[in-house]
Specification:
By secondary structure, this protein is α/β, with parallel strands linked by helices. About 30% of the residues lie in helices and about 25% in strands. Among the domains are: about 15-210, Rossmann fold (3-Layer(aba) Sandwich); about 455-540, 2-Layer Sandwich (GMP Synthetase, Chain A, domain 3), CATH 3.30.300.30. The protein has a 13-stranded mixed sheet with strand order 2-1-11-10-12-13-14-15-16-20-19-18-17, with helices on both faces. The radius of gyration is 24 Å and the shape is globular.
Length: about 550
């Protein structure tokens, strides 16, 4: 850790550590009667309060202590967004252990690898994932037991899972008399692994300090803008970068929390939005696509929904327009990474933008936004020379800040920083006002004749066509130019468009030489464990694609 000179005159403030347990204590003390509503895996709707959550988190903390979990040891979770998972968030980290959220969409072999690498002592899981746990449990070297997050009557009659315990039995058997311990705020709080599209996943080990600071910053008006007047439904999973920090920032502000459980289809999300009068949500574009499609097919409108944060991958401008113009929903374009806890930028307007036309404002909002306080960023060329913030020069994006990793768990990958900055792997521009726009992932940029072509712009234009549901652009071999763009398109149900018509749709919107050389219509795009389109799969699938000759 960096050492700084000590001033001869130090401040005279109380020395209280920034700990995650203080968030649930605050929610209990000042917003104790505010609701947490969950659609359970059992199918029903569960309701209780922040005070109830805090009580049960303390009971779970006592249960973990009784099982011998020590400070700094990892405890895994494989669960949907729900009240029991929320209790585990606070019980595990608050007691000094480390919360390790595991993505259940990974293959059992990957889950076993992650659990072993983390050296998990126990794993808590929703009963949805009983078959998954049965598939990998015998391959876990350090796990002493598994805890099914349900009632006694939901426990399986027979199972191959060793030392299987009932969550509700553990809660009932333990007292709520538990005093959250005080310790160094730099102690590890939670562990999230990257999606591992190339090589084995690597762990980002967050601290209590980094998490509390991230929670403060993400709740700010020009970030996620969460307040006690909101009803928040996080669609982004709690196993994906801690649901972008919402399980911390929402109770920190006292907002009502609504958990969707496993039902993430358009109808289920819409029904819960309306029943609970949700005002704010967050998720990846693929989920919102399903919601908007369901609403369009059934001619539905929102009665309470006011704004959403969209991240994980670039939000197509067509989706942003649909939310804004058809439903009056503000879209906040956000960007971040697992290695950043994850929030880095948010796309909100400044006073000087309010006089712009609708199109002018859309041009600003289509960018990933400006850095929130706590995050610093810059763009550099391949030699590491910093590039100008002119909105057109693009380079490799680097970041630094108090909730950005300095190394991976167990130092996997060695020294990852470049002169104290974390290289994101994104290619971006930054304009004079500090608004950053991702043009591509460095591994996805198409290198054509020595020049770069960003794929995101090509995808966004395609998705603005009324017949296009989804689009992805990849580079394929070209004998003269090395690579040229191939556009892969999923059509909307009942809609049709020809290759020629879609290519003509690009005219006047981009430089002519950026126009895709070919278009292939496919039934579906491959999606990874975090909802992102897997371009590596597409590149493998279309590696032998022959482009038409001029």
């Amino acid at each position: 850790m960096a050492q700084y000179p000590q001033s001869p005159t130090m401040g005279q403030m109380m020395d209280r550590p920034l700990l995650i347990s203080s968030i649930i204590e605050h929610a209990d003390r000042y917003f104790g009667s505010n609701e947490i509503v969950s659609r359970r895996v059992e199918g029903d709707i569960h309701r209780y309060t922040y005070r109830d959550c805090h009580k049960r988190a303390r009971q779970l903390a006592n249960a973990l202590a009784g099982l011998g979990v020590k400070m700094g040891e990892r405890v895994g979770t494989i669960a949907w967004n729900g009240y029991r998972h929320m209790e585990a968030y606070y019980a595990i980290s608050g007691s000094g252990a480390v919360l390790h959220t595991i993505n259940p969409r990974l293959h059992p072999e990957q889950v076993a690898y992650i659990a072993n690498h983390a050296e998990d002592q126990y794993i808590l899981f929703d009963m949805t994932f009983l078959p998954l746990v049965e598939a990998f449990a015998s391959h876990c070297n350090t796990v002493k037991g598994f805890i099914l997050m349900g009632d006694r009557d939901r426990m399986p009659a027979t199972t191959t899972i060793p030392n299987l315990m009932c969550y509700e039995d553990l809660i009932a058997a333990n007292s709520a008399e538990f005093e959250w311990p005080l310790f160094d705020e730099n102690a590890a709080s939670s562990l999230c692994y990257t999606s591992g599209t190339t090589g084995n996943p690597k762990g980002a080990l967050y601290s209590h300090r980094s998490t509390v600071l991230h929670s403060y910053a993400s709740a700010m008006p020009d970030s996620l803008n969460v307040s006690a007047r909101d009803t928040v439904l996080p669609v982004v999973p709690m196993f994906h970068v801690n649901a972008w920090g919402l399980p911390y920032s929402v109770p920190l502000t006292g907002a009502k929390m609504v958990f969707p459980g496993p039902a993430l289809d358009g109808k289920s999300i819409y029904d819960l939005f309306e029943a609970e009068q949700v005002t704010f949500s967050a998720g990846v574009p693929t989920v919102w696509l399903g919601l908007l499609t369901y609403m369009a097919q059934n001619e539905l409108k929102f009665s309470s929904f006011k704004r959403t944060v969209i991240g994980g991958s670039a939000c197509p401008p067509a989706m942003m327009r649909a939310f804004r113009q058809q439903h009056g929903v503000e879209v906040v374009h956000a960007w971040g990474m697992t290695e950043m806890s994850p929030l880095g930028t948010c796309g909100t307007l400044q006073t000087k933008h309010l006089g712009l036309s609708e199109e002018g404002q859309m041009a600003v909002l289509a960018k990933q936004g400006h850095a929130i306080f706590g995050v610093d960023m810059k763009i550099v060329d391949d030699a590491g020379v910093e590039l100008p913030w002119d909105g057109s020069t693009y380079g490799n994006l680097l970041v630094r800040g108090p909730w950005i990793i300095s190394s991976y768990f167990k130092n996997e990958g060695g020294d990852v920083l470049v002169d104290g900055w974390f290289p994101t792997g994104d290619v971006a521009t930054i304009d004079a006002d500090g608004y950053m726009q991702i043009t591509d992932r460095s591994k996805d940029v198409i290198k054509s004749g020595g020049e770069w072509i960003g794929t995101i712009d090509l995808e966004n234009i395609a998705m603005a066509h009324p017949a296009v549901l989804q689009a992805a652009c990849i580079g394929v071999f070209h004998p003269k130019w090395d690579e040229r763009p191939l556009l892969l398109v999923v059509k909307k149900t009942g809609a049709d468009v020809t290759k020629e018509a879609l290519l003509a749709f690009y005219e006047g919107k981009i430089a002519k030489w950026w126009t895709p050389d070919d278009i292939a219509f496919i039934d579906a795009l491959p999606v990874g464990a975090t909802g992102k389109i897997l371009k590596n799969k597409l590149r493998e699938q279309f590696k032998d694609h022959v482009l038409p000759t001029a």
